[in-house]
Specification:
Length: 53
């Protein structure tokens, strides 16, 4: 059976806009989260946003 991870990536936060895209040490916060997910035995990753153009 395949396992999946769903990462919620909200961009419309009221206290810190676009928090997931903020850069810390040349990486976005989202990159840190996705890199840590590589350590989990999962074959499918979904990034879910609230972005509406």
């Amino acid at each position: 059976m395949k396992k999946a991870v769903v990462v919620q990536c909200r961009l419309g936060s009221t206290r810190l806009k676009n928090k997931a895209l903020k850069i810390i040490d040349n990486k976005t916060i989202l990159e840190y989260v996705l890199n840590s997910m590589k350590k989990v035995d999962v074959s499918i990753y979904y990034v879910v946003t609230d972005f509406i153009p």
